[in-house]
């Protein structure tokens, strides 16, 4: 697919400087892009490449002051990164819209309701009484259990597994290998030391505009629903336990884990490898640094915590500074003790005269 600078500018509502008919057919990083490619400049530290790049079209900030002449066509926008992301999204949509129909071999239950322009890849399985919305793309090897609902424009990448009774909203993307609706980790201790499994009869509800990374796992609720609310973004290799709620527009980085029945607020940011215990609440706008262990509720909105156990970020930085100074502080303390000892010895000697 080839687009002119003018067509791109219309899509991202940008202003052209240069030849509006310049055509591009692919994307490239500004420092290594070739003729016929589109690049963008969002980080000022890469500005030097703007004057040497071979890219034909570059998206830049409307506030950028050029220090030299450029050989490419510029498209000026308020936010180059967001504009480029929107363009990539449109490009991705064009590719997936071409997919349509049911590939063989695959199994689609006769009781499944399919919308328009649905694609179902080879070796996919769709169970009884499921509902597949318009423009949904189900890639090869996907399993969709009984009574599952998939909203319009959602994409399930290869190998995704969605267990029975789960609900997926509109414009949801689930990447390869993710498992939605597996049993929660519920076992009742017995008197003999064994564990009796507690049946997990709830489901998982994923609301609109959510993205879930590869090999993430979201467990079904014991009773009720595990809920991922609208706009949330989950990275690869994340564990969300039974009856957890993840708030609107919350982002969680790779290898983080959230234990059962914890309620995470809106617009929360959780760093990679962070762990959150069960049955607590995380206030709206909280930030949890990577590898932090959160063992109690965060009740104040927009708090930032770090460490294990996690506590206030500013206090943690002070503690780290003190820790670095401990050897010098120990030396000074030893010197002070020696001086006090000498003073006491001198006073004792004086008293004995």
Lay out the secondary structure:
Elements: E1 3-4, H1 5-12, E2 15-17, E3 23-24, E4 26-27, E5 37-40, E6 57-61, E7 73-77, H2 80-97, E8 101-102, E9 107-108, E10 113-114, E11 119-120, E12 125-126, E13 131-132, E14 137-138, E15 143-144, E16 149-150, E17 155-156, E18 161-162, E19 167-168, E20 173-174, E21 179-182, E22 187-189, E23 195-197, E24 203-206, E25 211-212, E26 217-219, E27 225-228, E28 233-234, E29 239-240, E30 245-246, E31 251-252, E32 257-258, E33 263-264, E34 269-270, E35 275-276, E36 281-282, E37 287-288, E38 293-294, E39 304-306, E40 311-312, H3 313-324, H4 326-352
Parallel strand pairs: 4-5, 5-6, 6-7, 8-11, 9-12, 10-13, 11-14, 12-15, 13-16, 14-17, 15-18, 16-19, 17-20, 18-21, 19-24, 20-25, 21-26, 24-27, 25-28, 26-29, 27-30, 28-31, 29-32, 30-33, 31-34, 32-35, 33-36, 34-37, 35-38, 37-39
Antiparallel strand pairs: 1-3, 2-7, 22-23, 39-40
Please tell me the total number of domains. 3
Q: Main beta sheet, described?
A: 12 strands, mixed
Distance between termini?
102 Å
Give me the oligomer status: single chain
* Number of E-state strands: 40
Strand order of the largest sheet: 8-11-14-17-20-25-28-31-34-37-39-40
- Unreliable spans are none
What does this structure look like?
By secondary structure, this protein is α/β, with parallel strands linked by helices. The protein folds into three domains: 3-97, MurE/MurF, N-terminal domain (Udp-n-acetylmuramoylalanyl-d-glutamate--2,6- Diaminopimelate Ligase, Chain: A, domain 1); 160-309, Hexapeptide repeat proteins (UDP N-Acetylglucosamine Acyltransferase, domain 1); 323-352. The strands form six sheets. A twelve-stranded mixed sheet has the order 8-11-14-17-20-25-28-31-34-37-39-40. Strands 9-12-15-18-21-26-29-32-35-38 form a ten-stranded parallel sheet, with no helix packed on it. Strand 22 and strand 23 (195-197) form a beta hairpin. The longest helix has 27 residues, at 326-352. The protein is flat. The N and C termini lie far apart (102 Å).
